[in-house]
Amino acid sequence: MSKHIVAAGLFAGLALGAQAQTKWDLPAAYPASNFHTENLVQFAKDIEQATGGKLQITVHPNGSLFKAPEIKRAVQGAQAQMGEILLAAYQNEWQIFGLDALPFLATSYAEARKLYQAQKPALQKKLADQGIMLLYSVAWPPQGIYSKKPLNSLADLKGSKWRAYSPSTARIAELVGAQPVTVQAAELSQAMATGVVESFMTSGATGYDSKAYEHIKYYYNTQAWLPKNAVIVNKKAFDALDKPTQEAILKAAAAAEERGWKTSAAKDQEYLDLLKKNGMNIVEPSPQMKTEMRKVVGEPMLKEWLDKAGPEGKAIVEAFQKM
Length: 323
Fold this sequence. Notes:
This protein is α/β, with parallel strands linked by helices. The chain has two domains: 21-140 and 227-272, Bacterial extracellular solute-binding protein, family 7 (D-Maltodextrin-Binding Protein, domain 2, 3-Layer(aba) Sandwich), CATH 3.40.190; 144-224 and 280-322, D-Maltodextrin-Binding Protein, domain 2. The protein contains ten helices and eleven strands. The strands form three sheets. Strands 7-6-8-5-9-11 form a six-stranded mixed beta sheet, with helices on both faces. The chain has a three-stranded antiparallel beta sheet with strand order 3-10-4. The chain has a two-stranded parallel sheet with strand order 1-2. α5 (167-176) links the parallel β6 (161-164) and β7. It starts with a helix and ends with a helix. Residues 6-19 have low confidence and may be disordered.
């Protein structure tokens, strides 16, 4: 009889142990070697350590669990508890998501940080309405133009097959007379190899990750904008955790945000050096080209965005410009 009681007690203990450990998934769109993904892995490790292994988070890189456009919906619908998204990819859903992809609005890390501070309260509120919490956000390095052929002016981009991965990059294609082709980061290398893509705007990071130097020889360092990735969590999943675990997540998120911004800035030059080492021509755009970019792309896109974003968007831009 006593053996049965001991066995029952053991089973109860095991059941409690199993209950106490929570396993979460965190889908991400970029390769394991990308600094955003490395930061996510460190974030997950910090949480596991702080909770004594009670919360284990598995990072799924390179669109392996959900493709980039599906990640936000997966977190909303609790198919994944956490996820990393590119905010600008969701601009069609809500204009404010695309604020940091407006060309020549914020063109340095210091300006991008200010833009984030101006945008953050609205972001948090919108995501909360969708059952999501914003944990942290990190900027990509500044965006430049990759081109198969040398560019003396924007007219040289006319008719070229231009990779679009967000509403704003598709709009740039229209403004410069290029043909937009939708290609996610995970498919970019293949698209260049097969001639589907001849030009695009992205960071040195994505250019290096996708080995752009194997197919494209020119990078114009326009520093046009610094889009952000955001790490989000399903609010119900977060609320179901005990207080110490919630605090561990928030603490790890704050650390990941600081670490991510520092790494991004340090990596910017590192990636450009790596591209150059692999045969890419890194070109500073001419003053004429910079002026053209602002006139043809920057000013019209800001005006269009303000028209669509309405008073809410206008207030955020004004707050940013006063900082």
